[in-house]
Amino acid sequence: MTNSVTTAATDAVTASLEVRGLAFAYPDGHQALFGVDFTIARGERVALLGPNGAGKTTLVLHLNGILTGGTGTVTVAGLPVGKRHMAEIRRRVGIVFQDPDDQLFMPTVREDVAFGPAAAGLRGPELEERVDRALSRVGMAEFKDRPPHHLSFGQRRRVAVATVLAMEPEILVLDEPSSNLDPASRRELADILRSLDVTVLMVTHDLPYALELCPRALILSDGVIAADGATADLLGDDELMRAHRLELPYGFDPRSVPAATSP
Amino acid sequence: MGAGHAHKLYRHGHSPVHALPPHTKLAAVFAFVLVVVSTPREAMWAFAVHAGLLAVVAYTARVPAGFLLKRLLIEVPFVAFAVLLPFVAEGERVDVLGLSLSVNGLWGAWNVLAKGTLGVAASVLLASTTELRELLLGLQRLKLPPLLVQIASFMVRYGDVITGEMRRMRIARESRGFEARGLKHWGVLAKSAGALFIRSYERGERVHLAMVSRGYAGSMPVIDEVTASRAQWSYALTLPCAALAVCLLGWML
Amino acid sequence: MHAPDGFINAPVSAAAGLVAVGAVAVSLRGARRELDERTAPLAGLVAAFIFAVQMLNFPVAAGTSGHLLGGALAAILVGPYTGVLCVSVVLLMQAVLFADGGLTALGVNITDMAIVTTVVAYALFRTLVTVLPRTRRSVTVASFIAALVSVPASALVFTLLYAIGGTADVSLGKVVTAMVGVHVLIGIGEAVITALTVGAVIAVRPDLVHGARGLRQRLKLRVNGELVDAPETGPEPVPVTARGQRRFWITGLAASLVLAGFVSFYASADPDGLEKVATDHGIDEKAREHAIADSPLADYGVEDVDDARLSGGLAGVIGVGVTVVAGTGVFWVVRRRRTGEEADVTSPSGTSV
């Protein structure tokens, strides 16, 4: 276990994330969310599963207030998402986007990781220390001064995780973390995620990955939470899986592998 | 144009020129070129001295002559123009090898060639001794508007990504047996360009989301700042100062 | 054409530098107004796009090819302010990173390649889109004409700078005919590519074409299965004023054309005008052979323009461009003031930029 994020100061009973009655339609008329409800307790690792077009990305963009204007509420560690606390919300909710090229927009790895904390006002040695710690947590410390586009895809994804960790978030939200990774990078990322003691919400199609990392899973389908339970139970329920266009890889039996345990 | 998207001019090294802060180098090169442009064209010896000064810099920076000379090729279109000048310019004419040339045009050609070449050489020396990132920091330090520096750094960051997308689109076209041969294929190429624009724009929107998610509110946090000591400034400014002396002599003699 | 150092003398380069600084400053403010905090990433990505698309080769015939300059395209796709910024940044980076274009000539290069192309193209494009019927084809036609005129207009401004601060004594007529003539041909290529590209974007994401925003349909929002009108995202022009605006534009264009005709007539009536110089365009036959073989423009397969009528006609085309720009400037100032007053009336506390 690496250096832990100190969250003890806040009340441990408060949920990391609470979503109530969230509905949203895009300006082009397409309605993506139809009343989403769920709660994630501090320290949980939860997978958000769902077929393409179920509204997963839309939901993610609500968690830090990038999309607003629908109905319902999102609360992060007791703080409602809204114009008033936007800066604090965005510090607490760390989103790792699917394409690391979108996430890594600065000329060097170091500056990219420093971006979030610097925007929050951190300067000098304190900033430097924060960057080093975040990079070492994902095992990328020696790539500090490299431009992001010279890294491999897996390395870029790890740096993307570091950019968010550097903000010491309350909850880490990962959008398809295992996509486009080769098996080795996929496992390395899983090790890193397991080693972090932050709340994690992982949006994914990769069901074995969800089973490996997340004890609990939510199924988002047609803009509502269709199921919420232990990942192994959900993946083992063939009828439920079929109803929501979720399919396990060929030959994979969720009952035959050990499921993730609570961190 | 189309000199390639990567920063190919940069040559890694540890010379004293490499070590100078970027903004001092930018200022020095700009001042030098300004002095060169202001040097009277009749003082031919002055341009030789300017070239000598650059040669000293190149030697100090350990930039090989061949590299420098190859890069001067970028000037070729204007060499062509310079070659044209003696034929089309007005005024008194002289006969050289049976061709009637304008004296004024000859001077003009010399002027464009000499100043243009020195300008390109100075810029190449700057680009080959300064890293991309440093150049942006230097521009920022020289009080270029922050928004402009941001736009430039996004362009630099995503130049590779976008040209990579363009290359993949070309490979996809060619894999399906398409090869652009003439005017009739412009439609297909333009469709690719259009798609490339949409991808670039949408990526811009996603990058913006990623920035906002990490607390961006319109201005970039200052993470790095370059500083230069008085000694570094005076070292860098030796070049334009020497050139200025030459230029002034050129006007007086 | 990226002018190198020493091509234009120091005072004129400095003056052009000031023009460039002013225009870029105005564009920075304008772009911020249009894109707010999204300016940096969006303009940066569009600049990267322009940079990339300049490398896309369009084959002309047997081994030769042309490529896009991008000023008109940028203006139509992202608007004049962001367009100026994007092309300026591309030019700045080309000068600093690739030694392409002189550092002291940066002002000149930005003035003729970023500012003139963008502003002329956008003004012409908006005028045409307003005057022509509201269809996608009109947008394509308007893009074509805007890009076509923007390139020789840029060449003309370059020639003007050369006339004031050129370092060789070449008759202005020769430079005008050579520059503008060749650039009309380049402009045709630019126009075809620009129109096709704008057409391709409008077919997929019409909302991304800044210059065609007026063509958008009203949006609907589905809230719990019911269709509701979407809230307006921008000020929807009231039909009456729209018609008034259209009449304004038609009148303006007609006036421009009349004025342009006058300009060309004047040019050809004047014995020292463009035609005269063009017909006197005497270059030694040997020299010409040499010049064309070596010319950078040989790629485009261009003969020297020696047709007097063509140069006269060009003056007309350029005249339209310049007049439209001037007219648009006046129109913008007037409208800005009027909307400013309206804003003051509706919201006394609202402050406009």
Automatic annotation (TrEMBL), chain A:
Belongs to the ABC transporter superfamily. One of its GO terms (biological process) is cobalt ion transport. This is ABC transporter ATP-binding protein. GO terms for cellular component: ATP-binding cassette (ABC) transporter complex. It is found in: Cell membrane. The keyword Cytoplasm does not apply. Its main location: membrane. Gene3D superfamilies: P-loop containing nucleotide triphosphate hydrolases. Residues 17-247 form the ABC transporter domain. Part of an ABC transporter complex. Responsible for energy coupling to the transport system. Probably part of an ABC transporter complex. Responsible for energy coupling to the transport system. Keywords: ATP-binding, Cell membrane, Membrane, Nucleotide-binding, Translocase, Transport. One of its GO terms (molecular function) is ATP binding. It is a peripheral membrane protein. PANTHER family: ENERGY-COUPLING FACTOR TRANSPORTER ATP-BINDING PROTEIN ECFA1, HEAVY METAL TRANSPORTER. NCBIfam families: cbiO. Pfam families: ABC_tran.
UniProtKB/TrEMBL annotation, chain B:
GO terms for biological process: cobalt ion transport. Its main location: membrane. The keyword Membrane applies. Keywords: Cell membrane, Membrane, Transmembrane, Transmembrane helix. The chain crosses the membrane at residues 43-60, 72-89, 109-127, 233-252. It comes from the Bacteria. Coiled coil: none annotated. One of its GO terms (cellular component) is ATP-binding cassette (ABC) transporter complex. The keyword Transmembrane applies. CDD domains: EcfT. It is found in: Cell membrane. It is a multi-pass membrane protein. InterPro entries: ABC/ECF_trnsptr_transmembrane, ECF_CbiQ, ECF_transporter_component. NCBIfam families: ECF_T_CbiQ. This is Cobalt/nickel transport system permease protein. It comes from Streptomyces griseoloalbus. The lineage of its organism: Bacteria, Bacillati, Actinomycetota, Actinomycetes, Kitasatosporales.
